[in-house]
Design brief:
79 residues; single chain; mainly beta; two-stranded antiparallel ribbon
């Protein structure tokens, strides 16, 4: 039996957007390649940008686009 060594590939840590979070939490701590991360916003906010990112085998994220949680538009009714 032979032993095969593999290089551990990690991506940089993601940062949760203000008023939001990233799931799973390992995405916030140099996740391993092939980790799938999802961005979510708190109630009353909507996500602007890509909902998910994947840590690729090259140690780069599948997207570097900025992700933000924007407050929902408030509508006021006048009678």
């Amino acid at each position: 039996m032979s032993i095969v060594c593999k290089t551990v590939v990690q991506c940089t840590s993601l940062t949760a957007p203000e008023y939001g979070d990233v799931i799973p939490s390992q995405c916030l701590h140099n996740p391993l390649s092939d980790t799938l991360c999802h961005f979510h916003c708190q109630a009353g906010y909507r996500l602007i940008g890509s909902v998910k990112r994947i840590c690729t085998s090259s140690g780069k994220w599948s997207s570097n686009a900025v992700v933000v949680c924007k407050g929902a538009e408030q509508h006021f009714f006048h009678f």
